[in-house]
Amino acid sequence: MESNRLLHASLPLLFLVTWSYGGHVRNDELHLDGPALKMDQALLTFHNQLPEEVQIFYTSDHCYKCVYQQLVTVKPNNNSSATISTVFTLSLQVESRMSNTTLCRWSQTYEEGGRYSVWIQVPLAFSQPQCNFSVDKNPNNATLPLLVAALLLAIIALLFVATPYICRRHCTSKFIKTICCQGPQYSLEDDSCESVHDTVKAKSSRLLSLDTFRGFAITVMVFVNYGGGGYWFFQHAPWNGLMVADLVMPWFVFIIGTSVVLAISSMQRRGVTRLQLLRKITWRTAVLMMLGFCFLNYSPRDGPLSWSWLRIPGVLQRLGFTYFVLSLLQTFWGQTEIPERAFHWRNSAHDICLYWPQWLVIIVLEMLWLCITLLMPVPDCPTGYLGAGGIGDGGRYPNCTGGAAGYIDRWMFGDNMYRYPTCKGLYRTVQPFDPEGVLGTINSVVMGFLGMQAGKIIIFYKRKTLHCLCRYLLWAVILGASAAVLSKCTRDEGFIPVNKNLWSLSYVLCMGSFSFLLLGVMYFIIDVKGWWGGQPFLYPGTNSILVYVGHSLLGFYFPFSWEMHFQESHWEPLLQNLWGTALWVLIAYLLYRKRFFLKI
User: How far is it, in rounded angstroms, from Cα 539 to Cα 585?
Assistant: First the structure.
Protein backbone atom coordinates (compact mmCIF):
# COMPACT_ATOMS: atom_id res chain seq x y z
CA MET A 1 0.00 0.00 0.00
CA GLU A 2 2.32 2.74 1.17
CA SER A 3 5.79 3.03 2.53
CA ASN A 4 5.23 4.13 6.09
CA ARG A 5 6.01 7.81 5.71
CA LEU A 6 4.25 8.92 8.88
CA LEU A 7 6.28 7.44 11.70
CA HIS A 8 9.97 7.96 10.94
CA ALA A 9 11.55 11.13 12.16
CA SER A 10 14.67 10.02 10.33
CA LEU A 11 12.91 9.10 7.09
CA PRO A 12 13.91 12.24 5.14
CA LEU A 13 17.58 11.66 5.92
CA LEU A 14 17.40 7.97 5.05
CA PHE A 15 15.59 8.75 1.84
CA LEU A 16 18.19 11.26 0.71
CA VAL A 17 21.00 8.84 1.48
CA THR A 18 19.30 6.14 -0.57
CA TRP A 19 18.33 8.18 -3.59
CA SER A 20 21.04 10.83 -3.80
CA TYR A 21 23.73 10.19 -6.36
CA GLY A 22 26.67 12.22 -5.18
CA GLY A 23 27.84 11.36 -1.70
CA HIS A 24 30.58 12.60 0.59
CA VAL A 25 33.51 13.85 -1.46
CA ARG A 26 37.08 13.24 -0.39
CA ASN A 27 39.78 15.52 -1.78
CA ASP A 28 42.72 13.84 -0.13
CA GLU A 29 44.99 11.06 -1.30
CA LEU A 30 43.32 7.72 -1.97
CA HIS A 31 43.38 5.11 0.76
CA LEU A 32 42.87 1.56 -0.40
CA ASP A 33 40.31 0.73 2.27
CA GLY A 34 38.46 4.01 1.80
CA PRO A 35 35.37 5.12 3.72
CA ALA A 36 32.82 2.61 4.96
CA LEU A 37 30.11 2.07 2.36
CA LYS A 38 26.46 1.50 3.16
CA MET A 39 23.82 -0.30 1.18
CA ASP A 40 23.31 0.90 -2.39
CA GLN A 41 26.62 2.74 -2.37
CA ALA A 42 29.90 2.40 -4.24
CA LEU A 43 33.14 4.38 -4.15
CA LEU A 44 34.32 6.08 -7.32
CA THR A 45 37.83 7.57 -7.39
CA PHE A 46 38.99 9.97 -10.09
CA HIS A 47 42.69 10.17 -10.92
CA ASN A 48 43.38 13.39 -12.76
CA GLN A 49 46.70 13.15 -14.59
CA LEU A 50 46.10 16.30 -16.62
CA PRO A 51 47.82 19.65 -15.94
CA GLU A 52 44.42 21.31 -15.51
CA GLU A 53 41.53 21.10 -13.06
CA VAL A 54 38.49 19.05 -14.11
CA GLN A 55 34.92 18.82 -12.86
CA ILE A 56 32.81 15.68 -12.74
CA PHE A 57 29.06 15.94 -13.35
CA TYR A 58 26.44 13.22 -13.09
CA THR A 59 22.77 12.43 -13.60
CA SER A 60 20.65 9.33 -13.26
CA ASP A 61 19.22 7.68 -16.33
CA HIS A 62 16.04 7.17 -14.32
CA CYS A 63 15.67 10.92 -13.85
CA TYR A 64 13.74 12.19 -16.87
CA LYS A 65 15.69 14.90 -18.76
CA CYS A 66 17.42 15.94 -15.56
CA VAL A 67 20.08 18.60 -15.35
CA TYR A 68 23.60 17.31 -14.70
CA GLN A 69 24.72 17.87 -11.10
CA GLN A 70 28.29 18.44 -9.95
CA LEU A 71 29.80 15.46 -8.22
CA VAL A 72 33.40 16.44 -7.51
CA THR A 73 36.21 18.75 -8.61
CA VAL A 74 39.66 17.20 -9.15
CA LYS A 75 42.79 19.34 -9.06
CA PRO A 76 45.67 18.81 -11.53
CA ASN A 77 47.67 15.63 -10.90
CA ASN A 78 45.52 14.75 -7.93
CA ASN A 79 42.88 12.26 -6.77
CA SER A 80 39.38 12.71 -5.45
CA SER A 81 36.76 10.18 -4.35
CA ALA A 82 32.99 10.23 -4.01
CA THR A 83 30.36 7.78 -2.82
CA ILE A 84 27.75 7.20 -5.49
CA SER A 85 24.40 5.41 -5.62
CA THR A 86 24.14 1.98 -7.19
CA VAL A 87 20.36 2.09 -7.55
CA PHE A 88 20.09 3.22 -11.18
CA THR A 89 22.39 3.67 -14.13
CA LEU A 90 24.43 6.85 -13.88
CA SER A 91 25.63 9.08 -16.69
CA LEU A 92 28.85 10.92 -15.89
CA GLN A 93 30.87 13.45 -17.80
CA VAL A 94 34.26 15.05 -17.23
CA GLU A 95 34.62 18.70 -18.14
CA SER A 96 37.65 20.94 -18.29
CA ARG A 97 37.17 23.79 -15.85
CA MET A 98 39.43 26.06 -17.87
CA SER A 99 37.86 25.60 -21.31
CA ASN A 100 34.37 24.35 -20.26
CA THR A 101 34.62 21.53 -22.79
CA THR A 102 33.50 17.94 -22.25
CA LEU A 103 36.51 15.63 -22.16
CA CYS A 104 34.64 12.33 -21.89
CA ARG A 105 31.18 10.99 -21.08
CA TRP A 106 29.86 7.53 -20.20
CA SER A 107 26.92 5.66 -18.64
CA GLN A 108 27.32 2.72 -16.29
CA THR A 109 25.51 0.82 -13.57
CA TYR A 110 27.71 0.42 -10.51
CA GLU A 111 27.30 -2.38 -8.02
CA GLU A 112 26.91 -2.22 -4.27
CA GLY A 113 30.13 -2.15 -2.25
CA GLY A 114 32.36 -1.88 -5.30
CA ARG A 115 35.34 0.47 -5.49
CA TYR A 116 36.12 1.86 -8.91
CA SER A 117 38.69 4.17 -10.46
CA VAL A 118 38.54 6.49 -13.44
CA TRP A 119 41.90 7.56 -14.90
CA ILE A 120 41.76 10.86 -16.73
CA GLN A 121 44.87 11.04 -18.87
CA VAL A 122 46.32 11.67 -22.31
CA PRO A 123 47.87 8.49 -23.74
CA LEU A 124 51.10 8.89 -25.72
CA ALA A 125 49.45 7.87 -28.99
CA PHE A 126 46.58 10.34 -28.65
CA SER A 127 46.27 14.07 -28.40
CA GLN A 128 42.83 14.10 -26.73
CA PRO A 129 42.25 13.18 -23.06
CA GLN A 130 40.67 9.81 -22.36
CA CYS A 131 38.90 8.29 -19.36
CA ASN A 132 39.88 4.72 -18.53
CA PHE A 133 37.86 2.67 -16.07
CA SER A 134 39.13 0.03 -13.62
CA VAL A 135 37.79 -1.99 -10.69
CA ASP A 136 39.80 -1.64 -7.48
CA LYS A 137 37.60 -3.93 -5.37
CA ASN A 138 34.92 -6.29 -6.56
CA PRO A 139 31.37 -5.42 -5.43
CA ASN A 140 29.32 -7.40 -2.95
CA ASN A 141 26.73 -9.94 -3.96
CA ALA A 142 23.76 -7.83 -2.90
CA THR A 143 21.18 -10.39 -4.04
CA LEU A 144 22.60 -13.27 -1.97
CA PRO A 145 20.55 -12.46 1.19
CA LEU A 146 17.42 -12.25 -0.93
CA LEU A 147 18.11 -15.59 -2.60
CA VAL A 148 18.73 -17.28 0.76
CA ALA A 149 15.52 -15.78 2.18
CA ALA A 150 13.55 -16.90 -0.90
CA LEU A 151 14.90 -20.45 -0.51
CA LEU A 152 13.96 -20.58 3.18
CA LEU A 153 10.47 -19.24 2.47
CA ALA A 154 10.05 -21.86 -0.28
CA ILE A 155 11.00 -24.62 2.17
CA ILE A 156 8.55 -23.28 4.75
CA ALA A 157 5.80 -23.10 2.12
CA LEU A 158 6.54 -26.70 1.11
CA LEU A 159 6.17 -27.77 4.74
CA PHE A 160 2.84 -25.96 4.96
CA VAL A 161 1.65 -27.89 1.90
CA ALA A 162 3.06 -31.25 2.98
CA THR A 163 1.88 -31.20 6.60
CA PRO A 164 -1.89 -31.38 5.89
CA TYR A 165 -1.27 -34.14 3.36
CA ILE A 166 0.70 -36.18 5.90
CA CYS A 167 -1.97 -35.54 8.49
CA ARG A 168 -4.71 -36.77 6.13
CA ARG A 169 -2.70 -39.91 5.35
CA HIS A 170 -2.19 -40.47 9.07
CA CYS A 171 -5.90 -40.07 9.76
CA THR A 172 -6.85 -42.43 6.94
CA SER A 173 -4.40 -45.04 8.17
CA LYS A 174 -5.80 -44.93 11.71
CA PHE A 175 -9.36 -45.10 10.38
CA ILE A 176 -8.55 -48.31 8.44
CA LYS A 177 -6.92 -49.84 11.49
CA THR A 178 -9.99 -49.03 13.57
CA ILE A 179 -12.30 -50.83 11.12
CA CYS A 180 -10.04 -53.86 10.69
CA CYS A 181 -8.98 -54.43 14.27
CA GLN A 182 -12.15 -53.27 16.02
CA GLY A 183 -9.91 -52.25 18.92
CA PRO A 184 -10.70 -49.44 21.32
CA GLN A 185 -7.09 -48.32 21.24
CA TYR A 186 -7.76 -46.88 17.77
CA SER A 187 -10.67 -44.66 18.76
CA LEU A 188 -10.88 -41.42 16.81
CA GLU A 189 -12.58 -39.44 19.55
CA ASP A 190 -9.39 -38.33 21.29
CA ASP A 191 -7.04 -37.46 18.42
CA SER A 192 -6.57 -34.57 16.05
CA CYS A 193 -8.29 -36.22 13.10
CA GLU A 194 -11.73 -35.20 14.28
CA SER A 195 -10.93 -31.53 13.90
CA VAL A 196 -9.51 -32.19 10.45
CA HIS A 197 -12.69 -33.90 9.25
CA ASP A 198 -14.86 -31.23 10.84
CA THR A 199 -12.90 -28.56 9.05
CA VAL A 200 -13.37 -30.27 5.71
CA LYS A 201 -17.10 -30.73 6.27
CA ALA A 202 -17.72 -27.22 7.52
CA LYS A 203 -16.74 -25.51 4.32
CA SER A 204 -17.48 -21.82 4.54
CA SER A 205 -19.52 -20.05 1.93
CA ARG A 206 -17.17 -17.06 2.22
CA LEU A 207 -14.88 -16.55 -0.75
CA LEU A 208 -11.47 -17.37 0.64
CA SER A 209 -9.75 -15.91 -2.43
CA LEU A 210 -10.87 -12.40 -1.42
CA ASP A 211 -9.39 -12.73 2.07
CA THR A 212 -6.26 -14.30 0.62
CA PHE A 213 -5.84 -11.51 -1.93
CA ARG A 214 -6.34 -8.89 0.78
CA GLY A 215 -3.94 -10.71 3.09
CA PHE A 216 -1.32 -10.99 0.35
CA ALA A 217 -1.54 -7.24 -0.24
CA ILE A 218 -1.34 -6.39 3.47
CA THR A 219 1.62 -8.75 4.00
CA VAL A 220 3.60 -7.24 1.14
CA MET A 221 2.66 -3.78 2.42
CA VAL A 222 4.00 -4.52 5.91
CA PHE A 223 7.25 -5.84 4.44
CA VAL A 224 7.86 -2.83 2.20
CA ASN A 225 6.82 -0.40 4.96
CA TYR A 226 9.48 -1.90 7.19
CA GLY A 227 12.06 -1.23 4.48
CA GLY A 228 11.96 -4.26 2.19
CA GLY A 229 15.36 -5.42 3.37
CA GLY A 230 16.92 -2.22 2.05
CA TYR A 231 16.41 -3.25 -1.58
CA TRP A 232 15.47 -0.31 -3.76
CA PHE A 233 13.09 -2.31 -5.98
CA PHE A 234 10.87 -3.02 -2.96
CA GLN A 235 10.34 0.73 -2.49
CA HIS A 236 8.24 3.25 -4.40
CA ALA A 237 9.28 4.48 -7.83
CA PRO A 238 10.80 7.99 -7.64
CA TRP A 239 8.13 9.30 -10.02
CA ASN A 240 6.95 7.43 -13.13
CA GLY A 241 7.06 3.65 -13.40
CA LEU A 242 6.28 0.77 -11.07
CA MET A 243 8.10 -0.90 -8.21
CA VAL A 244 6.85 -3.43 -5.66
CA ALA A 245 5.59 -0.87 -3.12
CA ASP A 246 3.48 0.76 -5.84
CA LEU A 247 1.38 -2.39 -6.26
CA VAL A 248 -0.12 -3.01 -2.85
CA MET A 249 -2.45 -0.07 -2.22
CA PRO A 250 -4.39 -0.39 -5.50
CA TRP A 251 -4.76 -4.11 -4.80
CA PHE A 252 -6.24 -3.21 -1.43
CA VAL A 253 -8.60 -0.64 -2.99
CA PHE A 254 -9.65 -3.20 -5.63
CA ILE A 255 -10.61 -5.71 -2.94
CA ILE A 256 -12.55 -3.01 -1.08
CA GLY A 257 -14.70 -2.59 -4.18
CA THR A 258 -15.23 -6.34 -4.55
CA SER A 259 -16.12 -6.74 -0.89
CA VAL A 260 -18.55 -3.79 -0.99
CA VAL A 261 -20.60 -5.44 -3.75
CA LEU A 262 -20.72 -8.84 -2.07
CA ALA A 263 -21.40 -7.51 1.44
CA ILE A 264 -24.06 -4.92 0.59
CA SER A 265 -25.83 -7.28 -1.84
CA SER A 266 -25.95 -9.90 0.88
CA MET A 267 -27.32 -7.45 3.46
CA GLN A 268 -29.95 -6.17 1.02
CA ARG A 269 -31.11 -9.72 0.34
CA ARG A 270 -31.45 -10.24 4.11
CA GLY A 271 -33.80 -7.26 4.29
CA VAL A 272 -31.45 -4.62 5.71
CA THR A 273 -32.98 -1.23 4.94
CA ARG A 274 -31.23 1.54 3.07
CA LEU A 275 -31.20 3.74 6.17
CA GLN A 276 -29.47 1.01 8.19
CA LEU A 277 -26.90 0.61 5.44
CA LEU A 278 -26.21 4.35 5.37
CA ARG A 279 -25.67 4.38 9.14
CA LYS A 280 -23.20 1.50 8.93
CA ILE A 281 -21.38 3.03 5.96
CA THR A 282 -21.09 6.45 7.60
CA TRP A 283 -19.86 5.01 10.89
CA ARG A 284 -17.19 2.88 9.25
CA THR A 285 -16.01 5.79 7.10
CA ALA A 286 -15.75 8.06 10.14
CA VAL A 287 -13.77 5.49 12.12
CA LEU A 288 -11.31 4.90 9.27
CA MET A 289 -10.71 8.61 8.83
CA MET A 290 -10.28 9.23 12.55
CA LEU A 291 -7.74 6.41 12.74
CA GLY A 292 -5.82 8.08 9.94
CA PHE A 293 -6.05 11.57 11.47
CA CYS A 294 -5.30 10.78 15.10
CA PHE A 295 -3.10 7.69 15.17
CA LEU A 296 -1.23 7.52 11.87
CA ASN A 297 -0.21 11.14 11.68
CA TYR A 298 3.19 12.61 12.30
CA SER A 299 4.57 16.09 12.94
CA PRO A 300 8.32 16.76 12.93
CA ARG A 301 7.82 19.91 15.02
CA ASP A 302 5.31 19.35 17.78
CA GLY A 303 4.72 15.62 18.15
CA PRO A 304 2.39 12.94 16.77
CA LEU A 305 -0.88 14.77 17.61
CA SER A 306 0.05 18.24 16.46
CA TRP A 307 -2.77 20.43 15.16
CA SER A 308 -0.25 22.80 13.60
CA TRP A 309 1.07 20.11 11.24
CA LEU A 310 -1.84 17.64 11.06
CA ARG A 311 -1.58 15.89 7.73
CA ILE A 312 -5.07 16.01 6.28
CA PRO A 313 -4.62 13.52 3.41
CA GLY A 314 -3.52 10.00 4.29
CA VAL A 315 -3.82 6.31 3.48
CA LEU A 316 -6.75 5.50 5.77
CA GLN A 317 -8.43 8.78 4.88
CA ARG A 318 -8.33 7.83 1.21
CA LEU A 319 -9.47 4.28 1.91
CA GLY A 320 -12.34 5.59 4.03
CA PHE A 321 -13.50 8.06 1.39
CA THR A 322 -13.20 5.48 -1.38
CA TYR A 323 -15.22 2.98 0.65
CA PHE A 324 -17.87 5.63 1.32
CA VAL A 325 -18.37 6.52 -2.35
CA LEU A 326 -18.40 2.90 -3.52
CA SER A 327 -20.85 1.92 -0.81
CA LEU A 328 -23.20 4.75 -1.77
CA LEU A 329 -23.08 3.62 -5.39
CA GLN A 330 -23.98 0.06 -4.42
CA THR A 331 -26.62 1.12 -1.88
CA PHE A 332 -28.58 3.36 -4.23
CA TRP A 333 -27.97 1.71 -7.60
CA GLY A 334 -27.12 -1.88 -6.78
CA GLN A 335 -29.15 -4.92 -7.82
CA THR A 336 -30.65 -6.96 -5.01
CA GLU A 337 -31.74 -9.75 -7.37
CA ILE A 338 -30.22 -10.84 -10.66
CA PRO A 339 -32.82 -11.48 -13.38
CA GLU A 340 -32.71 -14.90 -15.00
CA ARG A 341 -32.39 -13.40 -18.47
CA ALA A 342 -29.00 -12.05 -17.43
CA PHE A 343 -27.56 -15.53 -17.85
CA HIS A 344 -28.52 -15.81 -21.52
CA TRP A 345 -25.67 -15.31 -23.96
CA ARG A 346 -27.58 -12.51 -25.70
CA ASN A 347 -27.56 -10.55 -22.47
CA SER A 348 -23.89 -11.12 -21.69
CA ALA A 349 -23.35 -7.43 -20.87
CA HIS A 350 -26.03 -7.26 -18.19
CA ASP A 351 -23.45 -7.14 -15.41
CA ILE A 352 -22.59 -3.73 -16.91
CA CYS A 353 -25.90 -2.49 -18.31
CA LEU A 354 -27.92 -3.12 -15.16
CA TYR A 355 -25.57 -0.80 -13.29
CA TRP A 356 -25.61 2.07 -15.79
CA PRO A 357 -26.15 4.78 -13.12
CA GLN A 358 -22.96 3.67 -11.40
CA TRP A 359 -21.06 3.79 -14.68
CA LEU A 360 -22.40 7.24 -15.37
CA VAL A 361 -21.06 8.52 -12.03
CA ILE A 362 -17.65 6.94 -12.64
CA ILE A 363 -17.40 8.35 -16.16
CA VAL A 364 -18.22 11.82 -14.84
CA LEU A 365 -15.57 11.48 -12.13
CA GLU A 366 -12.93 10.34 -14.62
CA MET A 367 -13.77 13.13 -17.04
CA LEU A 368 -13.42 15.56 -14.13
CA TRP A 369 -9.94 14.13 -13.36
CA LEU A 370 -8.87 14.37 -17.00
CA CYS A 371 -10.13 17.93 -17.45
CA ILE A 372 -8.53 19.24 -14.26
CA THR A 373 -5.26 17.37 -14.81
CA LEU A 374 -4.77 18.20 -18.48
CA LEU A 375 -6.61 21.51 -18.93
CA MET A 376 -6.39 23.42 -15.68
CA PRO A 377 -3.92 26.35 -15.87
CA VAL A 378 -1.26 26.27 -13.14
CA PRO A 379 0.80 29.42 -12.41
CA ASP A 380 4.34 29.26 -13.88
CA CYS A 381 3.75 25.72 -15.13
CA PRO A 382 2.77 24.32 -18.53
CA THR A 383 -0.85 23.20 -18.83
CA GLY A 384 -1.23 19.46 -18.42
CA TYR A 385 2.19 19.05 -16.79
CA LEU A 386 2.63 15.60 -15.20
CA GLY A 387 6.30 15.74 -14.29
CA ALA A 388 8.14 15.87 -10.99
CA GLY A 389 9.58 19.34 -11.40
CA GLY A 390 12.86 20.02 -9.65
CA ILE A 391 15.83 19.34 -11.91
CA GLY A 392 13.69 17.25 -14.28
CA ASP A 393 12.68 18.45 -17.75
CA GLY A 394 15.87 20.45 -18.02
CA GLY A 395 15.15 22.29 -14.78
CA ARG A 396 12.58 24.54 -16.46
CA TYR A 397 9.75 23.83 -13.99
CA PRO A 398 11.34 23.46 -10.53
CA ASN A 399 8.15 24.38 -8.62
CA CYS A 400 5.67 22.38 -10.70
CA THR A 401 5.81 19.04 -8.89
CA GLY A 402 2.68 17.09 -9.78
CA GLY A 403 1.20 19.81 -11.98
CA ALA A 404 -2.46 20.52 -11.22
CA ALA A 405 -2.65 17.79 -8.55
CA GLY A 406 0.15 19.34 -6.51
CA TYR A 407 -1.16 22.85 -7.01
CA ILE A 408 -4.66 21.96 -5.75
CA ASP A 409 -3.31 20.17 -2.67
CA ARG A 410 -0.98 23.03 -1.77
CA TRP A 411 -3.85 25.49 -2.19
CA MET A 412 -6.24 23.43 -0.06
CA PHE A 413 -3.96 22.05 2.65
CA GLY A 414 -0.97 24.40 2.78
CA ASP A 415 1.56 22.91 5.21
CA ASN A 416 -0.83 20.16 6.30
CA MET A 417 0.36 17.63 3.75
CA TYR A 418 3.24 15.28 3.07
CA ARG A 419 6.61 17.03 2.74
CA TYR A 420 8.89 14.25 1.54
CA PRO A 421 7.61 12.81 -1.75
CA THR A 422 9.46 9.96 -3.40
CA CYS A 423 10.79 12.29 -6.09
CA LYS A 424 12.56 14.60 -3.61
CA GLY A 425 15.91 12.80 -3.59
CA LEU A 426 16.20 12.03 -7.29
CA TYR A 427 14.63 15.18 -8.75
CA ARG A 428 15.79 17.59 -6.00
CA THR A 429 12.26 18.96 -5.62
CA VAL A 430 11.47 21.74 -3.17
CA GLN A 431 7.66 21.66 -3.22
CA PRO A 432 5.68 19.33 -0.92
CA PHE A 433 3.56 16.77 -2.72
CA ASP A 434 1.07 14.39 -1.15
CA PRO A 435 0.56 11.02 -2.89
CA GLU A 436 -2.86 10.78 -1.18
CA GLY A 437 -4.07 14.11 -2.53
CA VAL A 438 -7.46 15.18 -3.85
CA LEU A 439 -7.15 14.39 -7.56
CA GLY A 440 -5.62 10.99 -6.90
CA THR A 441 -8.56 10.13 -4.65
CA ILE A 442 -10.86 10.43 -7.68
CA ASN A 443 -8.94 7.70 -9.46
CA SER A 444 -8.83 5.68 -6.26
CA VAL A 445 -12.64 5.54 -6.51
CA VAL A 446 -12.29 4.40 -10.13
CA MET A 447 -9.88 1.67 -9.03
CA GLY A 448 -12.35 0.51 -6.40
CA PHE A 449 -15.12 0.53 -8.98
CA LEU A 450 -13.12 -1.95 -11.08
CA GLY A 451 -13.09 -4.15 -7.99
CA MET A 452 -16.85 -3.73 -7.77
CA GLN A 453 -17.08 -5.06 -11.31
CA ALA A 454 -15.14 -8.14 -10.22
CA GLY A 455 -17.68 -8.67 -7.43
CA LYS A 456 -20.60 -8.30 -9.84
CA ILE A 457 -19.07 -10.96 -12.09
CA ILE A 458 -18.90 -13.32 -9.12
CA ILE A 459 -22.59 -12.68 -8.34
CA PHE A 460 -23.78 -13.00 -11.94
CA TYR A 461 -21.75 -16.11 -12.77
CA LYS A 462 -21.49 -17.79 -9.40
CA ARG A 463 -22.22 -21.24 -10.80
CA LYS A 464 -20.52 -20.64 -14.14
CA THR A 465 -16.83 -20.80 -13.32
CA LEU A 466 -15.65 -20.72 -16.92
CA HIS A 467 -17.73 -17.62 -17.68
CA CYS A 468 -16.39 -15.89 -14.57
CA LEU A 469 -12.74 -16.64 -15.36
CA CYS A 470 -13.15 -15.66 -19.02
CA ARG A 471 -14.60 -12.31 -18.01
CA TYR A 472 -11.76 -11.72 -15.58
CA LEU A 473 -9.28 -12.45 -18.36
CA LEU A 474 -11.16 -10.20 -20.80
CA TRP A 475 -11.16 -7.30 -18.33
CA ALA A 476 -7.45 -7.82 -17.67
CA VAL A 477 -6.65 -7.71 -21.41
CA ILE A 478 -8.80 -4.61 -22.07
CA LEU A 479 -7.39 -2.68 -19.11
CA GLY A 480 -3.81 -3.73 -19.82
CA ALA A 481 -4.07 -2.76 -23.49
CA SER A 482 -5.56 0.61 -22.57
CA ALA A 483 -2.74 1.28 -20.12
CA ALA A 484 -0.19 0.31 -22.78
CA VAL A 485 -1.71 2.79 -25.25
CA LEU A 486 -1.80 5.65 -22.75
CA SER A 487 1.78 5.04 -21.61
CA LYS A 488 3.07 4.06 -25.08
CA CYS A 489 4.71 1.13 -23.27
CA THR A 490 7.34 3.52 -21.92
CA ARG A 491 8.07 4.94 -18.51
CA ASP A 492 8.18 8.66 -19.30
CA GLU A 493 7.20 9.25 -22.92
CA GLY A 494 3.51 8.27 -22.86
CA PHE A 495 0.41 10.40 -23.18
CA ILE A 496 -0.30 9.71 -19.50
CA PRO A 497 2.61 7.88 -17.81
CA VAL A 498 2.05 5.17 -15.22
CA ASN A 499 2.47 7.15 -12.00
CA LYS A 500 1.52 6.06 -8.52
CA ASN A 501 2.11 9.49 -6.97
CA LEU A 502 -0.55 10.98 -9.25
CA TRP A 503 -2.70 7.84 -9.40
CA SER A 504 -2.79 8.52 -13.13
CA LEU A 505 -5.39 6.92 -15.37
CA SER A 506 -2.81 4.62 -16.95
CA TYR A 507 -1.69 3.53 -13.47
CA VAL A 508 -5.26 2.66 -12.48
CA LEU A 509 -5.83 0.72 -15.71
CA CYS A 510 -2.53 -1.14 -15.34
CA MET A 511 -3.19 -2.08 -11.72
CA GLY A 512 -6.76 -3.03 -12.56
CA SER A 513 -5.41 -5.47 -15.14
CA PHE A 514 -3.02 -6.99 -12.58
CA SER A 515 -5.80 -7.20 -10.00
CA PHE A 516 -8.22 -9.05 -12.29
CA LEU A 517 -5.48 -11.54 -13.19
CA LEU A 518 -4.37 -12.14 -9.62
CA LEU A 519 -7.89 -12.44 -8.21
CA GLY A 520 -8.91 -14.75 -11.07
CA VAL A 521 -5.97 -17.07 -10.41
CA MET A 522 -6.64 -17.15 -6.67
CA TYR A 523 -10.37 -17.67 -7.21
CA PHE A 524 -9.69 -20.66 -9.48
CA ILE A 525 -7.04 -22.24 -7.24
CA ILE A 526 -8.69 -21.62 -3.86
CA ASP A 527 -12.47 -21.43 -4.28
CA VAL A 528 -13.01 -23.53 -7.41
CA LYS A 529 -10.39 -26.28 -7.23
CA GLY A 530 -9.56 -26.15 -3.54
CA TRP A 531 -5.87 -26.77 -4.21
CA TRP A 532 -4.82 -24.16 -1.66
CA GLY A 533 -6.50 -22.84 1.47
CA GLY A 534 -4.94 -19.40 1.23
CA GLN A 535 -2.55 -19.88 4.17
CA PRO A 536 -0.76 -17.92 5.51
CA PHE A 537 -2.16 -14.83 3.71
CA LEU A 538 -5.70 -15.80 4.72
CA TYR A 539 -5.02 -14.83 8.36
CA PRO A 540 -3.93 -11.19 7.93
CA GLY A 541 -6.60 -10.88 5.24
CA THR A 542 -9.33 -11.43 7.81
CA ASN A 543 -7.85 -8.83 10.17
CA SER A 544 -6.36 -6.37 7.72
CA ILE A 545 -7.23 -3.14 9.59
CA LEU A 546 -5.79 -4.48 12.83
CA VAL A 547 -2.56 -5.53 11.10
CA TYR A 548 -2.23 -2.23 9.28
CA VAL A 549 -2.84 -0.02 12.31
CA GLY A 550 -0.85 -2.32 14.58
CA HIS A 551 2.25 -2.46 12.42
CA SER A 552 2.10 1.32 11.90
CA LEU A 553 1.95 2.06 15.63
CA LEU A 554 4.07 -0.76 17.08
CA GLY A 555 6.12 -1.97 14.15
CA PHE A 556 9.24 -0.01 15.02
CA TYR A 557 9.44 -1.25 18.60
CA PHE A 558 10.89 -4.48 19.93
CA PRO A 559 10.23 -7.35 19.15
CA PHE A 560 9.18 -6.25 15.67
CA SER A 561 12.43 -4.39 15.12
CA TRP A 562 15.66 -3.54 16.87
CA GLU A 563 18.62 -1.23 16.48
CA MET A 564 20.67 -2.57 13.61
CA HIS A 565 24.46 -2.74 13.85
CA PHE A 566 25.34 -4.09 10.38
CA GLN A 567 23.88 -1.66 7.88
CA GLU A 568 26.55 -2.05 5.24
CA SER A 569 24.82 -5.13 3.79
CA HIS A 570 21.27 -6.40 3.37
CA TRP A 571 21.56 -9.36 5.74
CA GLU A 572 20.37 -7.74 8.96
CA PRO A 573 17.79 -5.36 7.41
CA LEU A 574 16.24 -8.22 5.44
CA LEU A 575 16.18 -10.46 8.53
CA GLN A 576 14.58 -7.73 10.60
CA ASN A 577 11.94 -6.86 8.01
CA LEU A 578 11.02 -10.50 7.38
CA TRP A 579 10.92 -11.13 11.13
CA GLY A 580 8.61 -8.18 11.76
CA THR A 581 6.32 -9.21 8.90
CA ALA A 582 6.24 -12.83 10.09
CA LEU A 583 5.28 -11.73 13.61
CA TRP A 584 2.25 -9.86 12.31
CA VAL A 585 1.23 -12.88 10.24
CA LEU A 586 1.60 -15.02 13.38
CA ILE A 587 -0.49 -12.57 15.42
CA ALA A 588 -3.17 -12.65 12.72
CA TYR A 589 -3.09 -16.47 12.80
CA LEU A 590 -3.55 -16.60 16.58
CA LEU A 591 -6.44 -14.15 16.36
CA TYR A 592 -7.93 -16.26 13.56
CA ARG A 593 -7.76 -19.35 15.76
CA LYS A 594 -9.48 -17.43 18.56
CA ARG A 595 -12.12 -16.20 16.10
CA PHE A 596 -11.28 -12.60 16.92
CA PHE A 597 -11.81 -10.26 13.99
CA LEU A 598 -11.59 -6.49 14.34
CA LYS A 599 -14.66 -5.08 12.64
CA ILE A 600 -15.39 -1.42 12.13
Answer: 7
